[in-house]
């Protein structure tokens, strides 16, 4: 191994993985959150266009700034910030935990493509359970029709509980599981394949570049796979029983309804701001996670 070769990494304890994942996740969301607001607004638009509907990402940003104020681009950021630490921490920590478990189960001495996919899906399901409720609160705060109804995160929580009951906080859980299982399976599974194809890094800077490229491509693939359940989840979580019975209840049934009434392309509403966030965002996640874990290994182990 040459003088500039990357040294083998030391195993990282779970609590260090947790903290590193949290730092990576918060870094990503602070950079990319306005795109998440745009994604939600587009996903909630029912129908095939026209009227008062947003036409593009630029139109979403321009109209929000003009009609509601620039601060609205960060409306609802507190719930995802609060959950981002455990969410991203669990994403990486679960991935690092499930990998060896599946290796032992299948008698493999290394991570393979199928194991990488199964590991990602399992990590996604674990992650989904903790994020479903904060996602619901975030969606309610981001939705245009709820402007003025909620005066912050805790006010939103209190009103949902008072008007809809405790069970309302579990709305969209099934679709959230689909969303996270597909994203994590696509993300971690493709990262494995992409890194196998890319030239091996000989320096730490080269390793960071590989991680960013692999993470960005992985984020794009994961987003392409999980946008349909995200559209259905978003509509389920924004429904208020005061407006009548829910139109969407589960991912598959909701996807069929949307495809029948609005066309298959409607299942990809909000895809562009979503992929613009989670493509580069996937790269940011992987790079920050790598930088933090490298620091931990060098200074705390």
Describe the structure.
This protein is globular. Helices cover 71% and strands 0% of the residues. It contains nine helices and no strands. The protein has a single domain, classed as Mitochondrial carrier fold (Alpha/alpha barrel), CATH 1.50.40. α6 (173-197) packs antiparallel against α7. It has helices at 14-43, 57-67, 78-106, 113-142, 153-164, 173-197, 204-238, 251-262, 271-300. With 301 residues, it is mainly alpha-helical. InterPro entries: ADT_euk_type, MCP_dom_sf, MCP_transmembrane, Mito_2-oxodicarb_carrier.
Radius of gyration: 20 Å
Class based on secondary structure composition and strand pairing: mainly alpha
Element-level helix/strand string: HHHHHHHHH
Tell me the overall shape: globular
N- and C-termini, Cα separation: 23 Å
Write the CATH homologous superfamily: Mitochondrial carrier domain
What CATH architecture label applies?
Alpha/alpha barrel
| Regions with little confidence, pLDDT below 50 for 5+ residues | 1-8
Total strands? 0
Strand percentage: under 5%
- Main sheet specs: none
- Please give the share of residues in helix: over 70%
CATH top-level class: Mainly Alpha
- The name of the CATH topology is Mitochondrial carrier fold
> What is the helix tally?
9
Q: How many domains make up the 3D coordinates?
A: 1
Mean pLDDT, all residues: 88
From the structure provided, what is the oligomeric state, counting identical versus distinct chains?
single chain
């Amino acid at each position: 191994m040459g003088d500039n070769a990357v040294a083998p990494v030391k195993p990282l304890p779970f609590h260090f993985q947790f903290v590193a994942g949290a730092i990576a996740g918060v870094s990503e969301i602070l950079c990319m959150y306005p795109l998440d607001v745009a994604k939600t607004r587009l996903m909630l638009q029912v129908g095939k266009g026209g009227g008062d509907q947003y036409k593009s990402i630029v139109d979403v940003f321009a109209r929000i700034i003009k009609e509601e104020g620039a601060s609205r681009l960060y409306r609802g950021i507190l719930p995802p910030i609060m959950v981002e630490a455990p969410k991203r921490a669990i994403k990486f920590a679960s991935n690092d935990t499930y990998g060896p478990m599946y290796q032992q189960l299948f008698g493999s001495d290394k991570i393979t493509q199928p194991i990488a996919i199964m590991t990602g899906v399992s990590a996604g399901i674990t992650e989904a359970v903790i994020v479903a409720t904060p996602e619901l609160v975030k969606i309610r705060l981001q939705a245009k029709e709820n402007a003025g109804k909620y005066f912050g995160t805790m006010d939103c929580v209190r009103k949902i509980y008072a008007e809809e009951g405790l069970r309302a906080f579990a709305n969209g859980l099934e679709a959230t599981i689909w969303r996270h299982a597909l994203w994590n399976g696509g993300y971690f599974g493709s990262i494995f394949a992409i890194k196998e194809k890319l030239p091996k890094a000989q320096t730490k800077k080269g390793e960071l570049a590989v991680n960013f490229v692999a993470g960005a491509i992985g984020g794009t693939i994961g987003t392409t796979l999980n946008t349909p359940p995200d559209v259905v989840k978003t509509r389920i979580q924004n429904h208020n029983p005061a407006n009548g019975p829910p139109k969407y209840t589960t991912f598959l049934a909701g996807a069929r309804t949307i495809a029948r009434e609005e066309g298959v392309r409607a299942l990809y509403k909000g895809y562009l701001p979503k992929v613009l966030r989670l493509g580069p965002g996937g790269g940011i996640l992987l790079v920050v996670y790598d930088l933090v874990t490298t620091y931990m290994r060098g200074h705390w182990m």
